[in-house]
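Bumping my old thread because nobody answered last time. Still need a sequence for this structure:
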């Protein structure tokens, strides 16, 4: 009589209810924000006659450009495990430098100088945080105060304007461009697309996630953690400088108090979009969706004539929900 000697393979255990719930929660975080965006768009389209007009949509995207750029820089920093609270101060100081350089040279040279200044300020911020070893939240908060102070010193507390002869060229980022969108919106889309690919598809992007997920493990694997952090701050600085150029182009001037507090809105957009405040998780597209959502809420309040006090309450609740969800997901995956 023959005996069956075929090895028996144990059946794979069925996923538990807790595992299924965790997967569902992760999908909600990934795609729930997109669903919320779509729902708000549909609701505003039905409740107002002006939401879907070309003028309002162009204005909506133009408003998103500044917060979207700052949120992109904030997201890249948060993924790597650091916070950048210098964004708005870097924005103001680089815009002032751009205007001042433009007065003695050319508008285009001035804009280039603003971007270079943003990168250099980001380099200084990153070096301070990495070399000092202080928590990035505290280190960048202190550095932002220094940058604001420098902005006041450079301008003497006054508003700086481009020369009258070049004032029109200075406002080029407000000019209509492709599909009727402003040049600022086109620049925003191009920059975000490039940075999104860099984070998602390059070696630098993979190292960014590795450092944010576990800095010590990344260091032991040969990744230069300090260099990754400094580079993240430099990218954030460039994004801040570009956002500063957009605001300066709109106003036709620059001043030391520009965009005060917008770094918190940018971090809020990143967190609402699904980027983990603990680092190692997130994506540039999530930051843009978060920025769009916050801008949509503001746009909706204006179109519906609602009190903006409730807008702040709603945004605060969204941030609280996003952070609570992130913490819950972290516990579920331990």
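Sorry it took so long. Here it is:
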């Amino acid at each position: 009589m023959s005996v069956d000697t075929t090895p028996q393979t144990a059946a794979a255990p069925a996923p538990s209810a807790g595992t299924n719930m965790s997967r569902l929660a992760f999908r909600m975080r990934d795609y729930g924000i997109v669903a919320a965006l779509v729902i708000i768009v549909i609701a505003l389209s039905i409740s107002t006659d002006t939401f879907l007009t070309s003028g309002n949509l162009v204005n909506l995207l133009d408003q998103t450009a500044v917060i979207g750029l700052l949120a992109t820089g904030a997201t890249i920093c948060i993924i790597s495990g650091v916070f950048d609270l210098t964004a708005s101060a870097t924005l103001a100081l680089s815009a002032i430098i751009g205007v001042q350089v433009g007065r003695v040279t050319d508008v285009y040279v001035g804009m280039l100088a603003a971007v270079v200044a943003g990168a250099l300020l980001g380099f200084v911020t990153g070096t301070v945080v990495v070399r000092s070893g202080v928590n990035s939240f505290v280190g960048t908060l202190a550095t932002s105060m220094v940058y604001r102070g420098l902005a006041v010193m450079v301008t003497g507390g006054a508003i700086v304007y481009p020369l009258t002869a070049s004032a029109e060229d200075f406002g080029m980022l407000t000019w209509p461009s492709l599909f009727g969108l402003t040049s600022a919106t086109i620049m925003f889309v191009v920059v975000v697309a490039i940075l999104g690919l860099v984070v998602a598809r390059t070696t630098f992007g993979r190292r960014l996630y590795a450092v944010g997920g576990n800095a010590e493990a990344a260091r032991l694997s040969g990744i230069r953690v300090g260099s990754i952090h400094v580079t993240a701050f430099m990218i954030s600085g460039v994004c801040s400088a570009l956002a500063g150029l957009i605001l300066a182009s709109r106003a036709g001037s620059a001043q030391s108090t520009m965009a005060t507090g917008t770094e918190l809105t940018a971090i809020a957009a990143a967190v609402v979009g699904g980027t983990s405040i603990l680092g190692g998780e997130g994506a540039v597209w999530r930051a843009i969706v978060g920025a769009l959502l916050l801008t949509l809420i503001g746009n909706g309040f204006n179109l519906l004539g609602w009190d903006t006090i409730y807008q702040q309450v709603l945004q605060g609740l969204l941030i609280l929900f996003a952070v609570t969800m992130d913490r819950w997901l972290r516990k579920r995956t331990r």
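The first helix runs from residue 17 to 47. Let me know if any region looks off to you.
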